[in-house]
Amino acid sequence: MPRVLLIEDDPSVREGIELGLRRRGHEVRTAATGEAGLTAIQEFRPDLLLLDLMLPGVNGVQVCRRVREGSQLPIIMLTARGDDFDVVVGLEAGADDYIVKPARTEVIEARIRAVLRRIEEPGGRPAVELHGDLAIDRAGLTVAKAGERLALAPSELKLLLYLTAAPEQVFSRQQLLEQVWEHSYHGDARLVDACVRRLRHKIEDVPGSPRYIQTLRGFGYRFGPL
């Protein structure tokens, strides 16, 4: 089972989530502050980070940015409120998904599995696909631009793999939520938009004039090198 690091300053919430995940077989380490959490990442080497957004001192957004400087560790934000600004800032900082507290253990478990699930591609595809100066290795789950490997967060990689599997096809935000994030309900389109913006900053020469991931207003996104 995946090793989970939980950074949460509320003792009751922290203990409840920890107990629920341990009962499901996860090895769990907890931290009450951002500073302690950053240290625990180095010591514990988790498979996934559950990160409270509102932390004292080094807050959740700052933790997320520091992790993203040199790691592809999957991150799910925890927020006690559905505050639009907080959620958007957290997603822009590099989080892969978010959960509004309080949340049942089965909901948290489902999100963990969705973020960590590796993509299975059908056979017959080339080992490495070339799209302009992008080289995508589906088996190794790596992406390089002009020969330099890119550090993509799990949600960014999944989104790119999904879009490039059907070049020129237009996908709505809801389709991407269901297929990439595995949110079967009417989900939050901000997950998609924030992920697209982050991905463009990594794969596009000019993010404001994208060559690869194109927006069709009123319809969604498609991958199609210009």
Automatic annotation (TrEMBL):
Keywords: DNA-binding, Phosphoprotein, Transcription, Transcription regulation, Two-component regulatory system
Residues annotated with 4-aspartylphosphate modification: D52
Protein name, entry field: Putative two-component system response regulator
InterPro entries in the record: CheY-like_superfamily (IPR011006), OmpR/PhoB-type_DNA-bd (IPR001867), Sig_transdc_resp-reg_receiver (IPR001789), WalR-like (IPR039420), WH-like_DNA-bd_sf (IPR036388)
Signal peptide range in chain numbering: none
Organism: Streptomyces sparsogenes DSM 40356
GO cellular component: cytosol; protein-DNA complex
DNA-binding region: 126-225
Lineage: Bacteria, Bacillati, Actinomycetota, Actinomycetes, Kitasatosporales
Transmembrane segments: none
CDD domains: REC_OmpR (cd17574), trans_reg_C (cd00383)
Record GO biological process: regulation of DNA-templated transcription
